[in-house]
Amino acid sequence: MHPGPSLGLFIFAAAMANCLPVLAEPDRVPKGARLAQDVAKGNCLACHAMPTDAKAVTSANIGPPLISIRARFPEREQLRRQLWDAGLTNPDTVMPPFGKHQILTTEEIDLIVDYLYTL
Q1: Over residues 72-85, mean pLDDT
Q2: Cross-strand pairs, 57
Q3: What percent helix, strand, coil does the chain show, rounded to 5?
Q4: What is the per-residue DSSP string for 19-46?
Q5: Which of 1, 27, 73, 115 lies at a C-alpha separation of 20 to 30 Å from 82?
Q6: pLDDT band, very low/low/confident/very high, at 6 (cuts 50, 70, 90)
Q7: Mean pLDDT score of the chain, rounded to an integer?
């Protein structure tokens, strides 16, 4: 028996849905920005030049500036690994292993990645 056009269309649509980029929920980017700038959490601005809520750019220079993130980390997972434990790719880094040492949760790391991908 032939499955019929509706089942074939459903299978095609489901397969295509897996190919589309996942769009961040609108409130995820502001949440990620707050975490990245929170001195008790990400505190990225302590070491990295980056835009702030006041539309200024910090002048920190311990780490590379947080600009053009998609160009530097085209694979989202690569950026997640960097935040989880930068020592995996650079054993001499001074960047804290935010995930490995449970400074940030997996969800918080994902929120920060969503934000950094806008820079």
Answers
A1: 95
A2: 51
A3: 45, 0, 55
A4: TSPPPPPTTHHHHHHHHHH-TTTT-GGG
A5: 27
A6: low
A7: 82
pTM of the model: 0.74
DSSP lists the bridge partners of residue 20 as none
Q: Which residues contact 109 (CB under 8 A, 6 or more apart)?
A: 80, 83, 84, 98, 99
Give the confidence band of 14 by pLDDT, cuts at 50, 70, 90.
very low
Cβ atoms of 63 and 47 closer than 8 Å: yes
Query: Considering the domain 26-116, what is its CATH architecture?
Result: Orthogonal Bundle (1.10)
d(C-alpha 62, C-alpha 38), whole Å: 18
- CA 75 to the chain's CA centroid: 10
Measured distance CA(104)–CA(92) in Å, rounded: 21
